[in-house]
Amino acid sequence: MKKILFILLFILVLLKTIILVNQERIMHPEKRPLQAYHYEWLNHPLEHGVKIEKYISEKKTPYLIVRQEMSKGLSKRQKLLTKQLGEYKVKKDAGVLVLLHGKNGRKEDLLPVAERYVALGFTCLLLDLPHHGESERKHLYYTNKVYEKFYVDEVLEDFSKHISIEDKALYMWGMSLGGAFAISNVLNSKHTFKGMVLVSTFDRFDRVLKRKSQAIFGDVFGTLLYKGLEKSLTLFYDFNPSLVNPAKLAKELKLPLYMIHGKKDELIAYTQGEKLFNSFASTQKKLYLDEEGDHHNILVTKHKFYKESGLFLLGARE
């Protein structure tokens, strides 16, 4: 009998430990330090055909402005993209494209992405999401807090001190968690966004957590762990993952949409991407399911993502 009680107690302690550890990882994602390739862009921007300016908004959100700088000509990536465009004539000022990174990422991760889009005439705005990169926010609430719903607007207000946005077309781009922020911020923005690109984005956050738990611990134990995690998050942080529901918000959005999702994505199933895509009220929308893509290689498969998404956005403007 004592042995059985000891085993049960051990299991309960183990469950609680797993829940608390994962709870902290959710609310306080480990901050990714600057990588060697980040410094390559930051220290030698002209080699990549860009000019990079670094700022911090009034509410302490770090951001980068990335513009094309042709003093050393086009970079290799920009030349490849230009070649793919064929006879298409790039406009010098296509508008402002906001780029939002994924969970555990940082704004500098998207410098290679910005390098391509500036070659299409966009000025790119890259910012650190809450509790990421150089952000001083203590917690991440996955768009659930009011300030997170207007996160981009606050940065755009500061951005406008350096570049006027009065007559510029605005576009949104988000990957994974950044996609959820993109949807929420477009919906709540005082600005009108002309189009949006979403990469590997989930329809509901609770499904991501539950699926990951089941993949590690099996259906029964994984479901039990998720239920405990949900209750613990609600108790300690007043945060319920099921309330992070981009698909519900998408029903109110009609702007042109380009989505891409990898069929081999093990973190966010492509079926979640399909559900999210189908939720949008947009009449002009396109979903590309990449047969080779997973959550990490989705931007570097054989699919000409930058050409296709860029031309889609430029077409949405016209």
From TrEMBL:
Pfam families: Hydrolase_4. It comes from the Bacteria. Residues 94-207 form the Serine aminopeptidase S33 domain. This is Serine aminopeptidase S33 domain-containing protein.
